[in-house]
Amino acid sequence: MKIAVTAGSPELEAEVDRRFGRCRHFIIIDPETMQFEALESTGPSAASGAGISTAQMIIGKGVGAVLTGNCGPNAYQALSAAGIKVITGVSGKIAAAVKDYQAGEFKAADQPNVDAHSGMNTKTD
Q1: Residues 16-69: pLDDT tens digits?
Q2: Nearest to 115 by CA among 66, 76, 59
Q3: Which residues of 53-86 are buried (b: 16+ CB within 10 A; e: fewer)?
Q4: Which domains does the chain have, with CATH numbers?
């Protein structure tokens, strides 16, 4: 099962981005082989609806889980409705987060962990 990880840049050594809808990149990765595909997200430039449009992009990638720092209610609802587990509170390097996920260190969230529009005015640099 592939997973999606929010990323500040398109490599495994990058930090997990704390925002889902407005992250800069996603790493779509097979945690068994660590083979990955880096995707640029359109969320940072979206005027509105970043969470939903980003969720739709991820749903189309056939992942079973998303690792991120925070996920708002619109994105959470879309991902959950598609059967995708949402794991929030993730930080650190992407490769380490994937290994922790494989080891069972994370529990899927049962609700969003931030309010709608919480990522709009948050700098990642």
Answers
A1: 999 998 899 999 999 999 999 999 987 665 556 678 889 999 999 999 999 999
A2: 76
A3: bbbeebbeeebebbbbbbbbbbbbbbbbeeebbb
A4: 3-102 (3.30.420.130)
